[in-house]
Structures are given as C-alpha cells and as structure tokens.
Hints:
The protein is an alpha/beta fold. The protein has one domain: NAD(P)-binding Rossmann-like Domain (Rossmann fold, 3-Layer(aba) Sandwich). It has helices spanning 15-26, 41-52, 68-82, 105-133, 144-147, 153-173, 191-194, 198-206, 216-227; strands at 6-9, 30-35, 58-62, 87-90, 135-140, 178-185, 238-241. It has a 7-stranded parallel sheet, sandwiched between helices. NADP nicotinamide-adenine-dinucleotide phosphate (NAP) is lined by residues 10-11, 13-17, 34-37, 40, 64-66, 91-94, 114, 140, 142, 185, 187-188, 190-193.
Amino acid sequence: MLKGKVALITGGVRGIGKAISLCFAKAGADIVINYNSEKSLEHANQLVEEIQGLGVKALAVKADVSQLEEAKNLVDTTINTFGKIDILVNNAGITKDMLLLRMTEEEFDQVLAVNLKGIFNCSKIATKAMLKTGGSIINMSSVVGLSGNVGQSNYAASKAGIIGFTKSVAKEFASRKIRVNAIAPGFIQTDMTDALSEQVKEATLKNIPMKRLGQVNEVAQVALFLASDLSSYVTGEVVRVDGGMAM
Ligand code: NAP
C-alpha cells in the first residue's frame, strides 16, 4: 500500500510510533524514525536494522521537534537521503500531569512546546517540500483533547490545539494534494500508560465500552489507512481509536 513512499515518523522508536514505523515498512515505505533522548539511540539502531530486514530503507535521526532548527534538520535529512517526503506522522508527545493549582508554568510550556509547537515545526517544513509531490500528514491527538481530563489541562490543551491545527492546515493544502488528518487514541498500552497507577487504570477501564486497553497496532492500522490512497478523499478528519471511550 505504501510502496515507493517515504515516511517520517516523529517519536518513532517507542510505543505507538514504533508500531507505525514497522507497519508502514511492512507496507513498503522507506522509513525515517525520529527520536530525542540519548537513551533511545540503541533502540533506534535496533529498529533501523529490523526495518531494513523487511526489505525497505531506514534511517534514524535524533531531533527535538520542539526546536524549529532541529525539526528543519530532521525533514531536510529525510529529503536529502531519500529524495522526498510523502508521509509525515507527527507522533512525538509527552505528558507532565498535574492539577492546575499545582501545575508550574514550565510543565505547561514544555507539553505545549513538544506536543503542539513540534507539530507546527515539522509540518511547516514538510508541507513546503510536499507542495511538489502531494502528501499525507497524520497528527497524533488524543481523546483527552476532545473531552478533557483531570490533571491533564496542559496535555488536553495541546491535543485539542492539534485538532484545530489539523483542520486549518487541511483547508490550506487541500487543493495542493496534501491531506492532513488526526488520530485521537484512547487508552493504548505503552510506556506512557504503563506509568499510570493501577487505580487510574481501573477507573479508566470502566469508561471504555470495549472493556480493554487498545494495542499499538490498532492505532498503526488507522495511520496506514490515513497514509495510503485508501483514504484519498479524507482530509481534516479526526479518527478516534478508543474502544468507544469518547463517543
Ligand atoms: P511514548 O511511548 O511515551 O513515546 C513517546 C515518543 O515521543 C518517544 O518515542 C519519544 O522519544 C518521543 N518524544 C518525546 N519528546 C520528544 C521530542 N521533544 N522530540 C522528538 N521526539 C520526542 O508514547 P506513546 O504512548 O507511544 O504516545 C505516542 C503519541 O500518542 C503521543 O503523542 C501521545 O500523546 C499520543 N497518545 C497516546 C495515548 C496512549 O494511550 N498511549 C493515548 C492518546 C494519545 P524519546 O524517548 O527518544 O524522547
């Protein structure tokens, strides 16, 4: 489904991003996986080998997406190495949960900088290159951006902001053959959700009609749909992958 395409996945070494990287590689795309922390370097190199074993090209690039210059270097490296960028998955994200009364300005700013400004940075650079070829951008929002959540005002604001950003950019580029969509995952089993207390996990499960956590592959499959021509008439959409949690 993605043969001959070049895909850049931010935060592509762990969790949902890793599942998307592998899923897109299996579909035939050459993959650039982005990571930020030094501790991800070894995982990044292992994943590059695993992806190359699937018969496509792969490259890992370190960049902090919240910094415009680093985002520019990330996209430029993708284009310089593989000649183009067809698919951008803005997946990198962080949480710094705290009740508003105790949340620091730094905790608010950091989450907005990575989750929202990071998407601005990468999209701004990538869309310029995609003007020549067309493309698909997929932004990782969250059901928390639709319904809010106690202790996550910073994260919810960033994820709701992503939805407004997605729809605006989708309108700006629709006539230029660049589609822009968002995915709003619910409670997906990754390092991010493993860090939550058993009490929070049990309370969340009660609110999921399907009565189970989602798996990273279940998000990756929706990303594959949005990246491929199967969704050729879909833009500005937000697809929930949440077992019914936010309906
Ligand atoms: P995760 O396992 O914590 O992975 C987050 C990824 O983001 C890591 O690969 C990390 O790379 C990268 N990252 C963090 N800061 C970065 C930065 N400044 N620049 C570049 N990369 C950065 O998270 P996940 O659960 O897979 O979540 C992936 C996305 O889905 C996030 O946007 C998250 O908000 C969203 N989401 C997740 C869930 C869920 O239930 N898991 C639900 C809704 C939405 P390094 O480790 O190298 O820093």
